[in-house]
Amino acid sequence: MHSPLLDLAATSRGEGTVRLLWGQGTGSFGAGPSYPVDPDPSSIVTGDFNADGKLDLAVSSRVNHTVSVLLGDGVGGFAPPITSPAGNDTGWLAAGDFKRDGNLDLAVTNWGSTSVLLLPGDGTGRFGAPLTFTAGGKFTSLTAADFDRNGTLDLAVTCEDPNSLIILKNDGNGGFGVSAEYALGAVPIEISSGDFDGDGWADLVVTNQDDTGATVLLNNGTGAFGRGTNYFPGGNPSSVTLGDMNIKMGRSTW
Ligand SMILES: [Ca+2]
Ligand SMILES: [Ca+2]
Ligand SMILES: [Ca+2]
Ligand SMILES: [Ca+2]
Q1: What DSSP line would sit under 27-44, residue for residue?
Q2: Radius of gyration, CA atoms only, the chain
């Protein structure tokens, strides 16, 4: 029984698989099974796509332009992938109930394009016809949060050419419109959200692959973001994740 312990699922671009590692609760991981998915998997997210209380996986394929959902059995096994079309050069994924119908949906960026797709979940691991939203430059990554706290899950999307952050607000029916655009350092490659200052409003961190470093943008309490602060300039950061990693010190320092 693995459920109380945090496990890992990673994509293998070379193999075209998802590989599982079982957490031991000690910081080490034991080898788990691997599951074939469409070639060149580039992004993976977890979520309960068929609402059975068991965690599932969704994986994008840049080559086949698809999303594969692997339904979990809750004890470490996954069914063969359910594959759905997801635009061109299918890239970054974010899961959430964007249409607020109780079924988990996916938002997808297409690498180097100016479109975000919304794949409306049907509650079985499959998706209805994609809805396309176009904005700004060439999208690289995205994250979802309710930035304006109006009850709808919004998107923050990073772009190259021009290097920028675009906030797409959700109209409550899964329709997105650009609410704001912010300049970023060169080659913003990944974005994540969390409440860094504890004010209850979702903030953002973006990694820029040039010498700008990682940019933290704080939500000003309206869903808009102030001027970003850059950390570890020159580090050419590529990927970022969040968690309280020094909890025994009391107040965390970033
Ligand atoms: Ca499930
Ligand atoms: Ca939904
Ligand atoms: Ca919202
Ligand atoms: Ca905040």
Answers
A1: S-EEEEEEEE-SSSEEEE
A2: 18
Say which ligand is closest to the CA of 96: 2
Tell me if 200 sits within 8 A of 170, measured CB to CB. no
What lies within 8 Å, CB to CB, of 88 at 6+ separation is 65, 110, 113
Beta-ladder partners of 165: 158, 182
- Regions of the chain with pLDDT less than 70: 1-3, 248-254
How many angstroms does the Cα of residue 125 sit away from the middle of ligand 2?
11
State the distance from the centre of ligand 1 to the C-alpha of 104, rounded, in angstroms.
10
Shortest-distance ligand to the CA of residue 172: 3
The alpha carbon of 36 and the centre of ligand 1 are apart by a number of angstroms equal to: 18
Specify the pLDDT at position 45: 95
Q: What is the pTM of this model?
A: 0.90
Phi, psi dihedral angles at 191 (to 5 degrees)? -135, 145
Phi, psi angle pair for 249, to nearest 5°: -85, 0
Give the ligand at the shortest distance from the Cα of 194.
4
Distance 219 CA to ligand 3 centre (A): 13
